[in-house]
Design brief:
Layout lengths: L11 H9 L4 H6 L14 H4 L12 E13 L4 E12 L3 E7 L6 E6 L2 E2 L11 E10 L4 E10 L12 E6 L5 E6 L21 E8 L10 E7 L5 E8 L9 E2 L3 E8 L5 E8 L4 H8 L2 H11 L10 E5 L4 E2 L5 E3 L12 H8 L7 E3 L6 H19 L1 H12 L16 H5 L9 H17 L1 H13 L12 E3 L1 H12 L4 H8 L6 E7 L2 E7 L9 E5 L2 E5 L5 E5 L6 E3 L10 H15 L1
Parallel strand pairs: 1-10, 15-16, 16-18, 19-20
Antiparallel strand pairs: 1-2, 2-7, 3-6, 4-5, 4-7, 8-9, 9-13, 10-12, 11-12, 14-15, 17-18, 21-22, 22-25, 23-24, 23-26
Zinc ion (ZN) binds next to helix 7.
Length: 584
């Protein structure tokens, strides 16, 4: 998901004010639809949470497949669904517990084709509980068919909260989208709402009104045209991220092309856009191939090349829906010459959808890498100056109020929302700067080798030899230690496991400069470049201390290329100044 407000700085003071009020100006400005009932119907705490400690019964399930039929009624903002879910029991099991918003009442359930008596299932808080007619032994499979319908929750400020976005195009046609990262897949389909609840396969059948299309995840199996003018769009996707399943409905026009990969395969590319902006749509589509080229060269194969690279224009800013990325950046132009929103969401195909963190606590691996890819792409295109300029824009956003990683099992909102004590936006900005510093510290090859192994679970990814996987901060740390054959735990402890940044203290006496790191996490042996007049010297800092001789009258600049994320009193004073201004 895009960082809240990150790229809306053009709105300046208004943005800061609105951010303080807890709303996103980007979303506010984009949601121009005719007043849907935003935030209604209300959600239970259970439905609103995604991830966290896994329910004991749900932990016993392997989610083999889901076949999801949706009927969409934009005129009354309602849906009807039939979900056929197949699970394998990892342990003996007497009941199925499945997450589903209670605003979508269940009208019928069949288990193994046999209808259950109404009243045998219950869903008071959003945990649909289905007693099994026959208990399952370890290794048994079960298929449940769940029919439901109702008025799904409407998002207030998607994608920073979630639900349906019922918008209209300029000429009054329905334009519908869903987001589910924060609140989870249970907003519109029965699922296991935690990161490791990915089904092995999902089939989608999306029935939409006349004249509308429903681009969605994976490959298009076909479109059924009905006598009443409606159509059903049939899609199939393997290993989707739980929040990656998305409905997109509108009077779309389609642009297609094919990308010849350096790995030998051809990747179909699609962009579904609203009518009336063909030139702008074509200009965005022209960015797909060079962006793929960057990711495939630097990270590795596009993870879903046998399905597609898909992007769809949405009435909200953006979201990393697997193989159907949401794009709502209004074709904005920027000094760096590419669309950051498209680039950011596409990065999540590697960092989010191929690599998914098993616990939201490690969410910075999605957003830190996802954010770092924009300056890195700037560098790929134009060199170090663009990289430094783009990276610098995020430095002042680092807040350091809470550690990036807590070491506990967390929900999405506990991590994303700084109001609830989470690291909030630091998972983007501090995550990105942590990676910037790490790349300099260990060097490009070890950095990208460790990254590649984290993403694919192997050093030699090729199309067909990997599938989406779960990862963690601890795993990334171990990979860095392994590829470098050194111990960098001090680095991960300092930047991710405590809030405050390391501070570099310097003093000069009798022609010698003393440097010392102050870090609450213990020894911090980070080397430091020091520029003396026109010469740069690397000062090694074993035990966090170092020194170097300084000629009389020399001009000194510490860390002249800003390689190291460290405490900046100037930025702290700036944050205090901004707070005071807003308070006044
Ligand atoms: Zn993101």
């Amino acid at each position: 998901m895009p960082n809240r407000g990150t790229h809306c700085l053009v709105y300046g003071h208004l943005l800061r004010l609105i951010n303080r009020l807890g709303t996103g100006i980007c979303a506010v400005m984009l949601l121009t639809a005719a007043a849907p009932r935003k935030g209604e119907p209300p959600l239970t705490a259970q439905t609103q949470r995604s991830g966290g400690v896994i329910d004991a019964d749900q932990a016993k399930l392997t989610f083999d497949s889901a076949d999801l039929s949706f009927e969409i009624f934009p005129d009354r903002e309602a849906i009807a669904g039939i979900a056929t879910l197949t699970f394998t029991a990892k342990e003996p099991l007497a009941r199925l517990v499945i997450d589903l918003d209670r605003n979508l009442p269940v009208s019928a359930i069949q288990v193994e084709g046999v209808a259950l008596r109404p009243g045998t299932w219950s869903n008071p808080q959003g945990k649909l509980t289905i007693p099994l007619p026959r208990p399952l032994a370890k290794g048994d499979r079960v298929t449940a068919r769940i029919s439901y319908r109702g008025t799904p929750h409407v998002a207030v400020r998607a994608p920073w909260d979630d639900g349906f976005v019922w918008a209209k195009t300029k000429d009054g046609k329905p334009w519908v989208a869903t987001t589910a990262e924060g609140y989870g897949c249970d907003l519109f389909w029965p699922c296991l709402d935690f990161p490791t609840g990915e089904p092995g396969r999902v089939d989608l059948h999306i029935k939409v009104p006349k004249g509308l299309s429903a681009p969605s995840n994976g490959i298009l199996l076909g479109v059924d045209r009905h006598r009443d003018g409606r159509s059903t769009w049939n899609w199939r996707i393997k290993h989707p991220n739980t929040y990656g399943i998305a409905l997109n409905i509108g009077p779309y026009q389609q642009i297609t092309g094919s990308y010849k990969s350096r790995f030998g395969n051809s990747i179909p590319m699609f962009y579904w856009h609203l009518p009336g902006a063909k030139d702008k749509a074509l200009a965005l589509f022209a960015e797909f191939a060079p962006t793929l080229d960057f990711f495939e060269s630097v990270i590795g194969p596009y993870p879903f090349g046998d399905e597609k690279l898909g992007v769809v224009e949405t009435p909200h800013l953006g979201m990393e829906h697997q193989t159907i990325n949401a794009y709502g950046n209004g074709y904005a132009k920027a000094a760096e010459g590419f669309d950051w929103l498209f680039q950011h969401e596409l990065s999540h195909e590697w960092f989010g959808n191929q690599l998914t963190v098993a616990n939201w606590d490690d969410y910075w691996l999605h957003e830190g890498f996802g954010s770092y890819m924009q300056p890195l792409y700037g560098r790929w295109r134009e060199g170090e100056a663009r990289y430094a300029a783009m990276l610098d824009l995020t430095r002042a956003k680092i807040i350091n109020a809470a550690p990036v990683v807590s070491g506990t099992i967390r929900t999405e909102e506990e991590v994303y929302e700084d109001k609830s004590g989470g690291p909030g936006g630091d998972i983007y900005s501090k995550g990105s700067w942590t990676l910037h510093t790490l790349r300099w510290l260990i060097g490009d090859k070890p950095f990208f080798d460790a990254t590649r192994r984290l993403v694919y679970g192997r050093p030699d990814p090729k199309p067909g030899n990997f599938v989406p996987r779960y990862g963690s901060t601890i795993e990334f740390e171990a990979l860095v230690n392994e590829v470098t054959e050194k111990n960098y735990t001090w680095f991960f402890n300092a930047y991710l496991r405590q809030a405050a940044l390391p501070e570099l203290i310097t003093s000069t006496q009798r022609g010698v400069m003393m440097l010392e790191w102050k870090s609450a996490s213990g020894p911090f042996p980070m080397p430091v470049d020091v520029q003396i007049d026109d010469q740069i010297t690397r000062v090694e800092m074993p035990d966090g201390k170092g020194s170097l001789p300084i000629p009389d009258g020399a001009h000194i600049v510490i860390d002249p290329f800003a390689r190291i994320l460290k405490r900046s009193r100037a930025i702290e004073k700036m944050h205090s100044f901004q707070q005071l201004r807003l308070g006044g």
